[in-house]
Structures are given as structure tokens and as C-alpha cells.
Amino acid sequence: MRSARTLNNNSVRVAGGDKGEAILRAATRVFAHNGYFNSKVADIAREAGVADGTVYLYFKSKEEILHSIFDRSVDDALAAARKQIELISDPREKLRRIALLHLERLGADRDLAVVFQVELRGSTKFMEEFSAAGFAEYLSLIRSSFEEGQRAGMFRADLNANVVAKILFGALDEMATNWILSKRRYKLAPMADQVLDIFLNGVNAS
Amino acid sequence: MRSARTLNNNSVRVAGGDKGEAILRAATRVFAHNGYFNSKVADIAREAGVADGTVYLYFKSKEEILHSIFDRSVDDALAAARKQIELISDPREKLRRIALLHLERLGADRDLAVVFQVELRGSTKFMEEFSAAGFAEYLSLIRSSFEEGQRAGMFRADLNANVVAKILFGALDEMATNWILSKRRYKLAPMADQVLDIFLNGVNAS
Amino acid sequence: MRSARTLNNNSVRVAGGDKGEAILRAATRVFAHNGYFNSKVADIAREAGVADGTVYLYFKSKEEILHSIFDRSVDDALAAARKQIELISDPREKLRRIALLHLERLGADRDLAVVFQVELRGSTKFMEEFSAAGFAEYLSLIRSSFEEGQRAGMFRADLNANVVAKILFGALDEMATNWILSKRRYKLAPMADQVLDIFLNGVNAS
Amino acid sequence: MRSARTLNNNSVRVAGGDKGEAILRAATRVFAHNGYFNSKVADIAREAGVADGTVYLYFKSKEEILHSIFDRSVDDALAAARKQIELISDPREKLRRIALLHLERLGADRDLAVVFQVELRGSTKFMEEFSAAGFAEYLSLIRSSFEEGQRAGMFRADLNANVVAKILFGALDEMATNWILSKRRYKLAPMADQVLDIFLNGVNAS
DNA sequence: AATGAATGAGCATTCATTCAT
DNA sequence: TATGAATGAATGCTCATTCAT
């Protein structure tokens, strides 16, 4: 966890990671409000309270900032999810915790959620890396939990765990995207239960 | 059908619709290969075999081209879906047809699928309109079919039809995105059955 | 000559070469006054009376403009020199004409001369290409004329024609550079005679 | 000699002159390899083994470094040349020594030669100062020696000593530039004899 | 309708220089 | 003296859009 966080911060030169951290937060805000392509590096710098050039002491390019936001968040989310489920033995409960955490995290930081649900999707190039990196691990976390349940006889053995994982992820992802785009303000996290309800019912063995 | 062709005409200004059509097809190809932001209007013009300026006789801007691709496809898809289900009475079967058609259409035109699953997601602005326009109608089609099933007592009455529709859409959407990004070449349409299997099982009344 | 000029103009798209020509002239003026590195493309555009972007319709980069100035001038100079000496049989007179033409051309266009004597010398990279391209041909013209004289017994046979050519070129080049840098205004072309006087006396056979 | 070392000290502020000296040497290397405009102060600092800021404790600006390289070298060269010829009385021999020393010094340090023959030529501004400062003195040294010869009746009295000096310098300068740019590796100093041979023959009184 | 030459606003990035430590 | 993190001014180039033909 903490180590995951630290390892990931290879762009941040200072111990405290103060400036780099501030730039990342500023960028998340700016990207969320203007979109990645309409955001100027100068906007990020101003928002972070540093000079334009300073941004480049911490990140190699505007694109690297976007990647760093993703990397850091996925790493954090993975670490948090792993920590949550390591003490749980019931696969159903594991999936429930993963789903809940997923929506809780996005629901807690709307700007980050916008970047995740919208800005990060806009390039095949990134989507491919995205798919190859942390996302694969995340899907894998869901799949393993499901497979445990299959081995325990609680989930239907005839289902392809890979596909099942994508279905759950896709449903949660859609909840998040809809929440972002909705004019109405509602809590995102509670949606996890509705998704899980149908999902678990659908994959139940009996 | 006719209605589809008619809906379609609001992007294409010319009687023959030939050039406008060609530009749209060219743009789909170009966007799919280079991404929206990296595609130049000049690229589209060359691919369509017309001069740069000609593009602007058919579309107001580069962005309008993207929107037109979306509009036309959603209109087509909606029309096709409506036609398919109007003769079916079983709600379960309706949902199955919708899902199958969804993946069949995307699976039949990879370039269009890339534009839909990736390029169209990259801007909050577009996503909002997207959500407001055809997409809402599409979700509504799913929701109505589900509600019919609820009224008929075949689907659980305790479920929020709106959320259920999003879950199904999200799952299908994820199948499509994964298919796009996957290195392996497989058929997309058959995934519909696996999704439906779990979904229907999950929402079944009994 | 004219053909040399035409062949060389591969950057200029229009038949008349009007705009491209104007940009080249403007660039020569601007480079001569501010130096290559301190000249902005915008300055050149303004001086040429075109928009910034137009410059890039005719030249790939700022650097290509500098190269084009060089290429065009060397081609012109070579063609002119060849034409002048083709009807002359006396090697001494050939060398005299080459030298005179050399200083006449530079003396006739101070801006061009500044670009040639100063701006073009500032990069090893360019100097290497410079040396490899037109310049080599120019030196070769001098050398051949000298060798003719050697064969005719009028120039010392013990001299290395290559070195001799460089000596003459170097002396003329220095005249040009000094003329550029001098505060006093004097005619450059007449210097050719003083150089030739010593040079021919130095290489004379008798 | 002492005078050389003293002249040198106006660039180097420190007593030991160690760091300033190291920076100058590093800069010569860096400029020679990347060109003045492509060389970063940070490159020089790294090459010299000091921090970026330290460079500014010894030199006011990047440009001053270039100037200092020039100043130091010209001062050294002038001192060396003066010392060599002060004991010689024959004007022909004086010129021969000056020419030989000129090419020996450049031939002994290729990096310095590159800076002298290429990098220092790239700006009118510098060329003007260059012309005004040490270079004028250097030319003057040649001219005086030639005038001595004229007074002694060994050199043609009809020649303009100023022009003659430039011719000799120009010829030597061209030898040096060609040597820099040549792919073939040969000794530069021996070229002095070939130049002198023609030159002296050309200016001889008889 | 069609062309494509011309436009010019827009922006990521670099790097010489400073200054607090 | 020495450091090196921080600064911010400066600019070549791209490309969506226009418009005279």
C-alpha cells in the first residue's frame, strides 16, 4: 500500500512530493473542468501555484500528467481493494466490497471521476495501455474472487470468469459514468448494492 | 428502413447524399485509426477524395462530423432495434434481440466501433449531449422492454428499471470496448448471450 | 542557368514562384539584420507580406529557408561563373573572371552577403553540408581552371591544385567578410584585382 | 607566458582560476560538439563538474563564455606569436613563423578549432566585436611584418599592406576551416608551407 | 458545387538566469 | 563559494476554417 504509493511516484523528485502532488491535484481539477485537450499546461501551473516551467521538473509532458493521475489512482485503488478483501473469506462479500469501494472512491472525488470516466477514454493509445496495465490487474482481482466462489460451489460453474468480471466491471463503470453526467445529484456508492443484487442473483449456483 | 434513411438525412445536405456519405465514411475510418484529435480535416478530405473546402459544404465543423457519425448510427441502431422487437411479445426475447443487435452492429464495423467506444467518450461536452440525445432513447428502449416484463410478472418487481437498463447497457458496452482493445480476434456478437444469461438470471422473478 | 534556377526551386509550388521568392527575399533581409537565430518566422512573414502559416506552404521549416537561400545563390553563382568562363580560353583570365564575379555578386547584395559570410557559418552541421554540396563544386571550378593553366605550362607544376584553389577562395572569402564588417563603405569587386595580382604572381610558372 | 596568463585572468575571477578554467575548457568541448546555440549552460556545468549556478559565479552569461574562449585564445596566440618573432629579423621568416604558429595552435586542439572556425562566425554582432578586438591586432601583426619587408625592399612596394595581410589570413583561415570539416584526418600545420610558398612568391619584390 | 491557397490564432516546451539556502 | 530548484519569457509550427475563383 504505502509502498505501492511510493514506488509509483517516480516522477516526483522531492521527498514530500509536495509540488508534484499539488500539480497532480491541480491537473485533475483542470482536466475535469475543461477536458484534457482544452486544458493548457499554463492553466495547470496557475492552478497549482507554480510557474509553467516547474511542471516540467516533475512531469515530462502534459500527457505524462494524465498518465500519472491514472497510475496513482489505480495503484491506490488496487491497494485499498486488496487490503479490504484480504480479511474476508466469503467470495460474495469480497465482490461486494470491491464494488462498493469502486463507487465510493469515484463518488468521493468528482473531478477524479470525470477524468477517469471521460478524459481517460478519449484515446485508443491510452486505452490500450490502460487496458494493459492497472486495469488488467483490477479485472483480475474481480475474476479471482469470482473463481473462488466457483470453486466453493456458490457461483455457477458454467460461466466464464473472465466475461463475468467484465460484466460486473462494465455495470459499475456505467453507474459511474451516468453519475458524472447526470444533472441530478445523488450518491454514487449506494448504486453498488443494486448492481450486486442483480449480478449475484445472476451468477448464483443454486 | 425508410425512417432510418430519413433521420439520416439531416447530416447529409445533398440530394444524392453521395459526398456527405463518403465524407462520413472516410471520417469514421480516419478517426478510428488516428483518434479524433489527431485526425486532420485534410486527412478526411483526402480519404474521401474531395478537397478540404468541400468538407465544409457538408458539415459545419470537424466536431459536427463526429456528431453526425454518432447521430446517424444511433438513429440507424434505434430504428433497427425497434423494428426487430415490434413483432416480438416476450420481453426476455426483446432484450435478447436488443443486446444481440447491439453487439452485431458494432462487431460488423470495427472502425465505427472504435469511434463509438473510444473517440466519442473523450469529452464531457459530447458525453453530456450524447447522454441527452439518442443514448437516452436507447436506454429507454431497454427500460420499456424490462418494464413490460415486470408488468407481466416475469421480472422482479423490486428492481429499478432505470438502473437495470444501465446495468445491461454497461455490461454490453464493456464487451464492446474490450473487443476493440483486445489483440485477439474473436466474434463480438456471441458475447451477447453470455451477458444475457447472467442478466436474465439475475432479474428473473421466480 | 534558368534551368538551374528552376530545378532548384523545389520548395516553390507556384509556377511564378512569386510568394516563395518573396519569402526568400524577405528572409535574406531579416536574417541579415537580426541574425538567423534571432529572426522569428513571424518577422519573415511580415516582411514578405504573408501570414505566418503561409511560410510553411513554401518551406518546411525555418532552417529550410536558410538552406534555400544558400542553394539558390550557389546554383546561380555557379551557372553564372560557368557561363562566363566557357568562352574564355586563357586560364589566368578564367580565374580572374571567377574572382571578379564572386565579389561582384556579394558586393551587389549586402544582405545576401551578410547571410553568406556570417549567418551560414554558424553551424557545423550546415558547414558540413555546405562543404559537401555547392561549395565543393565551386572550388572544383577554380581547381579545374588552375589545372588547365598547369597543363599549359603557365602555372607552377609543383603546386597542389586543390590547395591552390582553397587559397584563392580563402583570400576572396576574407575580402568579402571584411567588407561586410567594415564600417567604411567601399566597393568590394575591385578587391578581386589585388587578390588576383598576388595570387597569379605567386603561382606563375616562370 | 606571464603576459598570456595575465591577460587571461580577466575572465577568471578566482585566484586559483581553477573552476573558471575548467568551465572554459568544458564549454569549448561542448560548443565544439553541439554548436553554441544547441549547447545548454547545464551541459557545460555538467561537463565541468559544477552546478549550473556556479557557472554564473565565473561568467556573466553564456555569451560571455564564448567571448572568453575567444579572448583567452587570441591573447595567448598573440603573445606566442610576438614572442616567436621578436628575435627574428627576416620579415619572410617572421611571416612564416606566424603562419606556422597559427595552424599549429588550431591543429593541436580540434575542439578549440571548431569553436574558432565555426561557432564564432555565426553572429554579426560577435563578428563585429571580433573584428574590432584581438583579430585587428592579429592582422596588424601580419601587416607590420609585411611592411618591414616592404621597407627592406624584399616585398613589392606597390601592394597595400592591409589587403596583403587579409589575403594571408584568409588563406590560412580557409585551410583551418577545411581541415575541420574534412572527413580525412591529416596534419594541419604543414599546410602553412604551401600557403607561404605561393604567398611569398606572389609578394616578392624581384 | 468544388477547389485548395491562404490565413492566423493557439500552445507545449525549453533553457538562460536567479536566489534562497 | 556553491548549489540546484524554480522561474517565466519566448517561439516554431499546426491545422481548422475561409473565400476568391
Structure in words:
With 206 residues, chain A is mainly α. The first copy, chain A, has a domain of 141 residues: Tetracycline Repressor, domain 2, CATH 1.10.357.10. In chain A, 73% of the residues lie in helices and 0% in strands. Chain A has 11 helices and no strands. In chain A, helix 6 runs antiparallel to helix 9. Chain A is elongated. The termini of chain A are far apart. Chain A binds a DNA duplex (21 and 21 nucleotides) through helix 3 and helix 4.
Summarize this structure briefly.
Chain A is an all-alpha fold and 206 residues long. The first copy, chain A, is built from eleven helices and no strands. Helix content of chain A is 73%, strand content 0%.
CATH class of one domain in chain A: Mainly Alpha
- Give average pLDDT of chain A, whole number: 88
Helix fraction of chain A, binned, reads: over 70%
Query: Can you tell me the overall shape of chain A?
Result: elongated
What is the CATH topology descriptor of one domain in chain A?
Answer: Tetracycline Repressor, domain 2
